[in-house]
Amino acid sequence: MLRQLTGLMALVAVFTATPSMATHLWEGGERQVSNVYVTGNAILVLFDPPPAFCQGGNFLGHGHVKIPTDALGADYLYTMILTLFTTDRPLRGIWVEDPNGQPCSTAFIPELYSITVGK
To answer: CATH second-level architecture of 2-116?
Structure first.
């Protein structure tokens, strides 16, 4: 049942979290959600292993990507991220705001638009 629910939530996240920005970046590869940090205006997500586009950087050790709380589909993405985190299941890919060569840092943390889960 959890597997079916997780798959459904991922499908909903893919279709509802449509980015408004013109440039996007897809990075495949299995990774775990290693930390979830909630702020007043965003949810920060730390991955293990870190995404290559972050170039070894992160936001103060709290996240490689952010989900703004007012973003379209944020509640679905947040629910899916928490499900992956609490069940220790990997994700297969992430779709983010294109960092255009900037490393992840306190000055820049890309927005997470969508994730892929599955076998």
So the answer is: Beta Barrel (2.40)
In contact, 84 and 33? CB cutoff 8 Å: yes
Model-wide pTM > 0.70: yes
> Which pairs count as long-range contacts for 104-107, CB under 8 Å and 24+ apart, including other chains?
104/50, 104/51, 104/53, 104/54, 104/55, 104/57, 104/58, 104/59, 104/64, 104/65, 105/57, 105/58, 105/59, 106/59, 106/60
pLDDT of the residue at 61: 86
User: What's the rounded Cα separation, in Å, for the pair 64 and 46?
Assistant: 5
